[in-house]
Write a structure and sequence with these properties.
The chain is mostly helical. Helices cover about 65% and strands about 0% of the residues. It folds into two domains: about 5-95; about 105-165, no CATH class.
């Protein structure tokens, strides 16, 4: 089929260029055939090749730009997903514990009453202990910052033991 190169160039007819792309890529013209085409034919062929190269460069740039946009969108979506996962984890943690999950510096957590029976869970790191006494010791060892100065004071039983030891 005859291709009106000037019309294709004026209207930037991408479909017409795509239709000719396979024909140009699969054609094998010898040097003799190019000479027989003469001035007008070889000029048209050269112009067609130029437009095809321009088209391929345009497609390459478009694909690169679109790829960069998609990569940026994926990064934004990934960060949003990470934020949502943290938020869901915080909500899940709040639902697991009887008390809200304390955040560092927000407020102090009260120690469980001594002698309380049954398993006890740390509301900061969610470890499970066999009794409230073990949990209290855990709070003093691992989460002293959440208890403020109250944790710095010795327990009454320990203080009484020290007084007895000093008296003997």
């Amino acid at each position: 089929s005859t291709l009106d190169l000037e019309r294709v160039a004026r209207t930037v007819d991408i479909d017409a260029l795509e239709a000719q792309l396979d024909a140009v890529l699969s054609s094998k013209l010898s040097e003799g055939e190019l000479r027989r085409l003469g001035g007008a034919g070889s000029t048209q062929l050269f112009r067609l090749m130029q437009m095809l190269v321009e088209y391929l460069l345009h497609v390459q740039q478009t694909l690169y730009s679109r790829g960069m946009e998609l990569e940026h969108a994926a990064q934004v979506t990934s960060s949003q997903l990470l934020e949502q996962a943290h938020y869901a984890g915080a909500l899940e943690a709040r639902l697991k514990g009887a008390a809200p999950v304390p955040f560092p510096g927000s407020h102090a957590v009260e120690e469980p009453p001594p002698g309380a029976s049954g398993p006890a869970q740390c509301h900061i790191c969610f470890k499970l202990f066999s009794s409230a006494d073990y949990l209290a010791a855990h709070y003093r060892r691992r989460h002293e910052a959440h208890f403020g100065q109250a944790m710095a004071q010795p327990e009454p039983e320990a203080a009484a033991g020290e007084v007895c030891a000093a008296a003997h």
